[in-house]
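Q: Convert this sequence to structure tokens.
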Amino acid sequence: MLKQGKSGQMTVEYALAFPVMLLCSAVLLYAFLYMVTAAFIDGSVHDAIRIAISEALPIEDTRTSIKKRVVDDLQEYQLCDASFAEVSVEVTQKMTGHWQIDVHVEMKPACFHMPIAHVNGYEVPGLVHTVHMVVSPYRNAVVM
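A:
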């Protein structure tokens, strides 16, 4: 029960502060989800590279194998909706014979499995996570 003379100051403060706190919480949640997904992608890419190199495939087949395994892991564990993630793999052979493998995963923003392209007229950029590894084909799947 309100004392006489009080006009709901707490309600007004709550109405002003709640949207800001909700926005901050959403930003922190999505930042946390991105970090968890990035850590998962690191492990997934490392495993995919080790498996692909140990199979002793040509460069093009290695690229395809790594991409397929990473996309399959994203779909299996549902950390990032695979329809909103684009995976690209670059495999180059260095002069020393080592293979340099760069995997880029671009995650397009989505909320509740719906794409977010624009917010209030501003384009929302995707988040890009890159994993770079150099592998020795001489010693089976040894990461340099």
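The chain has a mean pLDDT of 82.
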